[in-house]
Known about the structure:
By secondary structure, the chain is α/β, with parallel strands linked by helices.
Amino acid sequence: MSQTIPQPIFAALDLAHVSWHPILKRGLQAVAAADPAYLPALAEAQYLPTEGRLFAAFTKPLHEVRYVLVGEGPYPREESATGVCFMDGAVESLWSEKGLSKQVNRATSLRNFMKMLLVADGQLQLENTSGDALTHISLKARAIGSPYIQTLTELQANLTRHGFLLLNASLVFRPDVPPIKDAKAWKPFLETVLEALADHAVEKSKTPPILVLWGKIAEQLATLPATARFPNAVSEHPYNLSFIGNRTMQELFGPMHLLQQQK
């Protein structure tokens, strides 16, 4: 393995839960088998996420995964790319006096995801998801004793608590490489991950996790044989305004009440 997988990439496994280590190693071997030049070139390149967070999404133990959410790729900004799908590291506070915080409003996908959750929860009407309507919700959310969460860290914790594995179709972003090209290189890796999850479900006589695919790049995973083993929920990427009104996503996420404090 050490002769095939470059050491900087191999070392990134340290951030993953130990239950994932053999699976991720097999996944990297599959990437190397499909394109022997890819990982050595990646190890020499500048890419996001930094700080060895290539496998930061795999902190949840294998047996606790109930949903696999696949986005497109890391945010194209160093402070934002965390190695976890959809979690923008530049965002902390979710609310402001006028509604959503400036950081959330800059993170288009997160903004639309929060609005979708509020619509699903009956707090917003689909035809009015900004302005005074959001100001009113923010006032309630920031009040003393409010049941609402206040930070993106809490939102990620709620997703993790519900059993989400937050992946991207491409584990890296490079400004000089089209995201779809990197996503193609990581396909064998993701297929290995999905096969392992499906096999674990069979072994434990459990229903496989629900596979949630966001956007056209993630949807290409539907061509993998492994995806046929999962129930799935597919939608446009949250950076599209239409995501706010997506009924499939509302029905999936609404009952989780992700914007509320949970134990």
